Amino acid sequence: MDRAQKADLVAELKSSFESTSVVVVTRNRGLTVAQSTVLRNKMRDAGASYRVSKNKLARIAAEGTDYNSLSEMLVGPTALSTSGDPVAPARVIVDFAKTNDKLEIVGAVMGGTVLDVAGVKALAELPSLDELRAKIVGLVQAPATKVVQIIQAPAGQLARVFGAYAAKEDA
Questions:
Q1: For strand 22-28 and strand 78-83, is the pairing parallel, antiparallel, or unpaired?
Q2: Is 22 helix (H, G, I), strand (E, B) or coil?
Q3: Whole-number mean pLDDT of the chain?
Q4: Can you tell me the mean pLDDT for 142-160?
Q5: Regarding beta strands 49-52 and 22-28, do their DSSP bridges make them parallel or antiparallel, or are they unpaired?
Q6: Is the distance from CB of 59 to CB of 14 less than 8 angstroms?
Q7: Which of 29, 21, 34, 77 is nearest to 53 (CA)?
Q8: Rounded percentage of the chain residues whose pLDDT exceeds 90
């Protein structure tokens, strides 16, 4: 890699760090290309990215961002997972690590807060951003539905009473 390529990679990593809400660091000793491809595809499906980068370049890119504390985790063959949704990369990494012992979770940084392995696993158990949005919409929508039902109830009762009187007069 020449200097220009390294500078481009640092700039790309820095912009990624500035636009993400979480960076999960993993160590991938002995992960095959096929396994790595499966993991990348799962990450892409979840709206996250997974990249292997040189530790020194990642340290340089993290300087001056909320993810400066990543430098302690960048030892050995590491990979970085990023996403705007803080739960997505953690969930994919934890699920993949359950079935593959060659992927080791090192930790994560979320908005300046350093998470250990237990923190990453706890983060993976939280509902995703889309699930939380759906719950909020459901909570907002439920009272409106109940109001409509309450408003319609007297009209329905009146219609049944009028129908009963009409049936009584016809008989």
A1: antiparallel
A2: strand
A3: 83
A4: 69
A5: unpaired
A6: no
A7: 77
A8: 10
Radius of gyration of the chain (CA): 26
Strands of 87-150 (E only): list them.
103-110, 113-115
Strands (E), the chain: 22-28, 49-52, 78-83, 103-110, 113-115
Distance CA 18, CA 82 (A): 11
The CA–CA distances, whole Å, from 66 to 22, 81, 150 equal 10, 15, 50
Spell 60-95 as b/e; 16+ CB within 10 A means b: bbbeebbbeebeebbeeebbbbbbebbbbbbbbbbe
Contact assessment for residue 96 and residue 103, using Cβ atoms and an 8 Å cutoff: yes
Residue type at 33 in one-letter notation: V
The torsion defined by the Cα of 89, 93, 96 and 101, in degrees rounded to 10, comes to 170
Residue bearing the bigger pLDDT, 126 or 23: 23
For 4-41, how does the pLDDT look when each residue is reduced to its tens digit (9 = 90+)? 888 888 888 888 888 888 889 998 888 888 988 999 99
| Cα separation, 52 vs 9, whole angstroms | 11
Sheet of 22-28: strands edge to edge? 49-52, 78-83, 22-28, 103-110, 113-115
